[in-house]
Amino acid sequence: MPSTKPAPEKTPPETHEKTTALRPEHRRTGRGTAKCAELRAVAAELFLAHGYDGVSLDEIVRAAGGSKTNVYAFYGGKEGLFLAAVEARCRRLQERLGARDLAGLGLEQGLRALGRDLVALLLEPEHLALYRLVIGGTARFPGLGAVWYENGPLASRGVIAAFVAGHAGELAQGTRPDDIARAFHDVAVMDLLHRALLGEDVVGEAQRERAVEMAVRLVLGS
Q: Which of 122, 28, 16, 124 is nearest to 84 (CA)?
C-alpha cells in the first residue's frame, strides 16, 4: 500500500520589511502616535539637560504624562526611547535645513546659502549638546552611532547633494553630486564644530563666512 505523506506546508514568501523600535508608528492609533511624539520630545529635553544616567524613566513619564507601560510598549524601555529621542531631534534639524527655498539660485549662490544655514544650525547650543550626548553614548549603545549618522551628517549631505544634482550641467564631467556634498559639508562645518565642542567661541560672522566661502571655492574650483 503506497504511503501517503502530508503535503508540505506552504511558507509565505520571505519579506524584508525592516522593523525597528524607533519607528513603530504604523502600528499605533492616532492617539498613540501623539503620545509617542510627546514622550520623545520630553525625553529629549531631559536627556539633553541631564544626560542619559541623570534622568530616570519615572521622571520622563511624570513630565510627559502617561505611564511606563507606554514606554515599554512603544520603545521597549529607556534605551529605545533614548535612541528615538535622538533620532527625532536630528530629523527636526534636517527639516529646518531642507526648508530653505533655493528656487532660482545658481549653484554657487545655493551652496553659499546652504552652507550658512548648515553652519548656523550645527553651532546652535542644542545641537552641540546633542552631539556631546551622542559621542558620550556610542560605546554604551551600539545602535546610537548609526541613528546619529543616518539622520545627521548623511541626511545633511543628502540635502546638499539633491540641490547640486539639480545643477549637474554646471559640474565637471564625472563629478558626482554626493562627492561634492560630502566635501562641501565637511569643509564648511567640521573645523568650526570641533572647536565649538571644545568650548571655543566660534560665533563670529567672519569665521563662519570664511569657512563657507572656503567650501564653495574648494568644490567649485574657483
A: 28
Can you state the angle between helices 153-165 and 144-151, rounded to 10 degrees?
A: 20
Does residue 106 sit in helix, strand or coil? coil
Architecture of domain 25-220: Orthogonal Bundle (1.10)
Q: What angle do CA 34, 90, 206 make, to 5 degrees?
A: 135
- Residue 73 has φ and ψ, to the nearest 5°, of -70, -40
DSSP state of 174: T
**pTM of structure:** 0.81
Cell numbers linked to 16 = 524584508
pLDDT digits (tens, 9 = 90+) for 60-89: 999 998 889 989 999 999 999 999 999 999
Q: Could you tell me the residue ranges of all domains in the chain? A: 25-220
How far CA 43 is from CA of 47, 49, 91, in Å, comes to 6, 10, 15
What pLDDT digit, counting tens, does each position of 6-45 carry?
Answer: 444 443 333 333 334 444 444 555 666 888 889 999 999 9
Element (H, E) at 35: helix 30-50
Q: State the Cα–Cα distance between residues 154 and 179, nearest whole angstrom.
A: 12
pLDDT tens for each residue of 188-222: 999 999 999 998 887 788 999 999 999 999 999 86
**Amino acid identity, position 5:** K
User: What's the number of CA atoms in the CB half-sphere (13 Å) around residue 66?
Assistant: 23
